[in-house]
Amino acid sequence: MMRPIIEMKNVVKSFGVFKALHGVDLRVGEGEIVVVIGPSGSGKSTLIRCINQLEEHNDGEIIVDGAEVGRGRKSTVLTEVGMVFQSFNLFPHMTVLRNVALGPVRVRGLSWGAAEERAQRLLTRVGLEDHVEKYPAQLSGGQQQRVGIARALAMEPKVLLFDEPTSALDPEMVGEVLDVMQQLAKTGVTMVVVTHEMGFARKVADRVVFMDGGRIVEEGPPDEIFNSPRDPRLRSFLQAVLSH
Amino acid sequence: MVTNVEALPVMSIFDTFLNWKVFVQTLPLLLSGLTTTLTLGVTAIVLGFIGGLILALLRLYASSPLRQIAVAYIDIFRSIPILVLLVVIYYALPFVGLRLSPFGAAASALSLVSAAYSAEIFRAGIEAVPRGQFEAARALGLSPWRRMSDVVLPQALRIVIPPITSNSINVMKDTALASVVAMPDLLKQATQAQALAANPTPLISAAIIYILILMPLVRLVGVFEKRLAVRGR
Known about the structure:
The structure holds 2 protein chains of 2 kinds. Helix content of chain A is 35%, strand content 26%. By secondary structure, chain A is an alpha/beta fold. Chain A has a single domain (4-90, 157-243), classed as 3-Layer(aba) Sandwich (Rossmann fold), CATH 3.40.50.300. In chain A, strands 6-7-8-3-9-10 form a 6-stranded mixed β-sheet, with helices on both faces. Helices cover 82% and strands 0% of the residues of chain B. Chain B has 10 helices and no strands. The longest helix of chain B has 42 residues, at 20-61. By secondary structure, chain B is mainly α. Chain B has a domain at 38-182: MetI-like fold (Orthogonal Bundle), CATH 1.10.3720.10. The chains are: A alpha/beta, B mainly alpha. Chain A binds chain B through residues 52, 54, 76, 78-79, 81-83, 85, 87, 89-93, 102-103, 106-107, 151-152, 155, and chain B through 130, 132-133, 135-143, 146, 150-151, 154-155, 158.
């Protein structure tokens, strides 16, 4: 296996009495595309939110690029982890260009000029070169999510996390976002994607992880997961999402 | 004596309350009072704004002892009547060696109280910024200070414009309390002028000046609220 960039060992996360993760182990290699699937409430989002410490895990170990994170540690390694949110979470008071340039300026120390040049390049890459001076509210959902992806990319992260990036989109806009993600997957960046888009998982993933009840139930290459699922929970899940 | 008594009913309501001659005579005095009032009000509004922002951040994000001090401060200064605070600052503090000018005392009292009210307004504003904004700022790797200054506060400030303007109007009105510590503000000058002219016209003039200064601000709050309601949809 490639050098692991994310290692989760026996990670536990509880919200009060509710246990969202029951000791999860996951290794993601450098450049690997891992797609996490599973029913809602299975802990998929919690899993990736623990990786960049938007949720602090209660037990176990999370190592990102060789450095342990969380449980009180202050670590700069998390700036190597970018995130794309279900609800985009663009900054509404800034132009699209500024949204993308902000991180490089404030965190990487670039000048505004250099950062905006980088932002311009990335926005062109996601097909939004004509919208750089607009505000997020003036864009469609699909466009906003592409800005979200450009914003995460601008930090030149080693890992990109996607938390159900197409779940808040109208159906006709899902494709444009998945296209961008698919292109991205070819560039060698490590991606962990939580999604309900089974077509994307099948086509793009190196490995598919199926979660249920806060545990990783089954994982493997997409062929195996979709064509010969072993666990009955995975089988019934696939039946439910693929039957229509 | 008799002529005087008979003369009284002749004095119309205009001669008494809206006497043009008295108005013109006392106007310079009133305007100097207005300058003092505006200086005092603006000072208290600005200091209250800064203090309120700091208190709100302490209350929301500081660790235990500091946070509790901020909470206690906010509760105490929202409960104490400004007039009482003003009298304490001006008349009692000299006993412990702290003697403030009338302006200093009035500006302190008004700022201390305004900061407490502003703090609660800012807190509500910051809490109204969606959680996703905090998360996106954090995921980007921004420092806590940058998350506030670049992402949260610009949005929170927009939300609090109407209530902060409302609070500023209250502060402006409360400057009239400063007249009890011999501060030559608009109200004090009006009562002074009233005594000198033996006529209440200056008081009415002062009332009109207050309204002329504050009514545009009151209208402005309405405009802000309407605009915010439209954007919020």
